[in-house]
Design goal:
alpha/beta, Oxidized Rhodanese, domain 1, TST/MPST-like, Rhodanese-like_dom_sf, Thiosulphate_STrfase_CS, pyruvate, thiosulfate-cyanide sulfurtransferase activity
Length: 277
């Protein structure tokens, strides 16, 4: 599955697709509104990871629960999305928000095609694309069919059961320093879920896109020895980037939505440090 579209190809598309600006930074919640106001691709709607792609009342655990499929469809229908709409996303080089959007769409069972702008907003500017500062009006009138896939998201009890299963593997997508417990910028307890192995999401990225398929095949080769791959991170964001890479090489997987933020809320749960899973 190739998730990407170049700026040159995007400029040629007729009719124009629905475009979404996803330039969110978890360490600076004001950033997204600021850069969007300074300039965005004409007609692009702002969809924010924190406000729009997370449900604070959700029941999946952790800091950023996924939306229920109906709520996600309603969000996109506000912008006129239909089953045959092409949705194009652009993001920061980390691709966290775009990847989260795509996994949310998979979980919701949407049929509409989705692409990520390779290289993001900077690539658009370098290709001579125009910009605007005005806030486009949401047209409404969308109509999306959903086919929820609840098996794509798992909770803490599933992860605990997985720990005793040699055919299952838990992936931690955070940085090696956070995995080892050497640093922890967000949570009071440093380390990782016992049994998790570290596949840092940034290792599969280059210039605002995924690395090539040959790299991804080699990078994820050992995962083909397992029947059940569960991705985790801090709270269900960067795990979705690894999901994009696994999609590219055809390795089935699911995501522990609550991830580390959910795991450490239970004081009975152990946490490991160092390189040992």
């Amino acid at each position: 599955m190739n998730w990407f579209i170049t700026a040159e190809d995007l400029r040629k598309l007729e009719p124009a697709p629905l475009i979404f600006d996803l330039r969110f930074r978890l360490a600076d919640l004001a950033y997204h509104d600021q850069v969007y106001a300074e300039g965005h691709i004409p007609g692009a709607f702002l969809v924010d990871f924190e406000r729009d792609l997370s449900d604070p009342e959700g029941d999946f655990g952790g800091d950023h629960p996924f939306l229920q499929p109906e709520a996600f469809a309603n969000l996109l229908e506000k912008y006129g999305a239909r089953d045959d709409s092409l949705l194009v996303l652009y993001d920061e080089p980390s691709l966290m928000s775009a990847a989260r959007f795509i996994y949310q769409a998979k979980f919701s069972g949407l049929a509409c095609p989705i692409r990520i702008l390779k290289g993001g907003y900077e690539a658009w500017l370098q290709a001579g694309g125009g910009t605007e500062k005005d806030l486009p009006k949401a047209p409404g009138g969308g109509n999306l069919t959903i086919a929820p896939a609840p098996e794509l998201i798992c909770r803490q009890d599933t992860v605990k059961a997985q720990q005793a299963d040699p055919t299952s593997l838990l992936i931690d997508s955070r940085s090696p320093g956070r995995y080892r417990g050497e640093t922890e910028p967000r949570y009071p307890v440093a380390g990782h879920i016992p049994g998790a192995v570290n596949y840092y999401y940034e290792d599969i990225l280059t210039d605002g896109a995924l690395k090539d398929t040959a790299f991804l095949e080699a990078h994820f080769a050992d995962l083909k020895n397992y029947d059940d791959i569960i991705l985790s991170c801090g709270s269900g964001g960067t795990a979705c980037v690894n999901s994009l890479g696994l999609d590219m090489v055809g390795i089935p997987h699911r995501i522990y939505n609550g991830s580390y933020s959910d795991w450490i809320k239970n004081p009975d749960n152990k946490v490991n440090t160092g390189d040992k899973p």
